[in-house]
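BUG: 3D viewer hangs when loading the predicted structure for this chain

Environment: internal workstation, default settings.
Expected: structure renders.
Actual: progress bar stalls at 90%.

Input used:
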Amino acid sequence: MGKVLFFSGAGLSADSGLGVFRGGNGLWDKYDVNKVCSYASWMENYGLVHEFYNLRRSEYEKALPNPMHAAIGRLQQKYGPEKVIVITQNIDDLLERAGCCEVLHVHGRVGYVFCVSCGLEIKINGEFKGGVCEKCGGRVFKPSVVFFGEQAPSYVPMYEAVSSLTDKDMIAVIGTEGSVVPIGRIIGSRRGGVPAKRLLCNLEKSPYINDKDFDFVFYTEAKNAAGRVEAEAENILGGGL
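Structure tokens produced before the viewer hung:
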């Protein structure tokens, strides 16, 4: 019996309506990302930043997990987080709502803010209206999301988890083109890279991922491949291979 690592991106949540923010009068089109998502300037645009993330939070709370979220959730519930490692670039909580008990969000979580003075993190339901930190009295809070130009501390455990995979394990890459987090480079080639089996599920080919380095490739919406992905994971986790 091996373990399975799920690494996901925006394509996982696209089937829940959260995949695209540019084009079609999307949320991103109404805001300057250099003002609302930049670590260098977010304090100068404090009110606008929280307005933007309040809107994102509201939209995310209305979304529902799709079949791929549900499949990953079932597997982690059945085999536990040590056997089913779930890592995502997404800042929504759809994996948790689908049943996952442990998820590494490498780019943060939209449902939280933290005090910039002491680091106390606070869960936000709905709109963030400001306030005073109950720990230190601070009044400045940042969304718990990694901004452009900001360090991403969860990258370290992400790399450690991927590098720990053996030839008895599998990595399933779901819904990411591999441009922000270069997962194709991280896992490497079949010869010199991570020895685990590889599964790729994307809507289409990406110039950042060589699909020839994967054992299973599905070019379709994540929800359509959920059953096949779950079956391949069961083969690894249940000792079917």
